[in-house]
Write a structure and sequence with these properties.
about 40% helix; alpha+beta; two-stranded antiparallel sheet; elongated
């Protein structure tokens, strides 16, 4: 449905294609992009007045930004004249998403973590009772490196990434007991959690804190902190990113204290949509 309402009034500085801000106000292409991002927050559609309030620009210029997005197929209007993301935008986004492997998307964040902590960063996914490492970035040249490999596997219950991802699926002690079943949990070190009750407590802690830890539970001398990342869904983690460190060089307490910084280095990958 075409919306043809016109507006009279002054334009923003930079109206003729300029970019950036003027006195803290969005102008030019920055305003168009802000409108596009606001549309993405409203899958059921959003009205012009709501968009105007959200980005803090005059209504006439927001309307012109929406018009530009509509002409490009990046925005549309439904039968109630509410604005939504356009089919062309969705087509491009999904086509790009399908063609871009997870390890490519997550690698810059892994590089930033490895550089910051001088330790190994992993991206892993859950596969049944194991985790599979899809990407790995080692610390700078000269540092001691871990022997983990891309495609390698470890028991989920003994790793930070595994516990973090299991915590989303096993929300009760009964869930954990069913998951464990008649297969004993492998004891990798003397610190491995090997009972359903121990694992249940650890999973609950992971949900409360937003991260999970491996305190030398999978390999003696190596500890780890893992956070969820959202590569394929805005609400369900596709996997987890971890910083795996030699305990003598980077104690687990140091990783825990750096949780906020690690999350910041992950950027949008760590932010689910409410």
């Amino acid at each position: 449905m075409e919306h043809t309402q016109a507006f009279d009034g002054p334009t923003d500085p930079g109206e003729d294609g300029a970019t950036g801000t003027d006195g803290g106000r969005l102008v030019g292409s920055d305003r168009v992009l802000a409108v596009l991002k606001e549309l993405a927050r409203h899958p059921d559609g959003v009205g012009l007045d709501e968009v105007t309030r959200a980005i803090g620009s005059p209504k006439p210029t927001v309307h012109r930004a929406l018009g530009a997005l509509r002409r490009a197929g990046l925005a549309d209007q439904d039968a109630s004249s509410r604005y939504v993301l356009g089919d062309e935008f969705l087509r491009m986004a999904f086509a790009h998403h399908e063609a871009r492997p997870d390890h490519v998307r997550v690698r810059p964040a892994l590089q930033a973590l490895a550089h910051r902590f001088g330790e190994t960063a992993h991206y892993a996914v859950l596969d049944g009772r194991e985790v599979v490492y899809r990407a790995k970035v080692d610390p700078p040249s000269g540092a001691v490196k871990l022997t983990s490999t891309i495609g390698g596997r470890n028991p989920a219950h003994a790793t930070a990434v595994g516990k973090l991802l299991l915590a989303r699926e096993l929300t009760s002690l009964e869930d954990v007991e069913t998951w464990v079943g008649s297969f004993p949990l492998e004891r990798r070190t003397d610190r491995t959690l090997c009972t359903a009750a121990e694992l249940h407590r650890a999973l609950g802690t992971a949900i409360e804190r937003g991260y999970a830890c491996d305190d030398q539970e999978n390999e003696t001398g190596v500890n780890c902190l893992a956070l969820p990342v959202y590569l394929t869904s805005p609400t369900t983690p596709s996997g987890a990113v971890s910083v795996s460190a030699l305990a003598y060089r980077t104690p687990l307490a140091d990783l825990v204290n750096a949780f906020t910084e690690i999350r910041a280095l992950l950027g949008p990958l760590a932010d689910p949509l409410a």
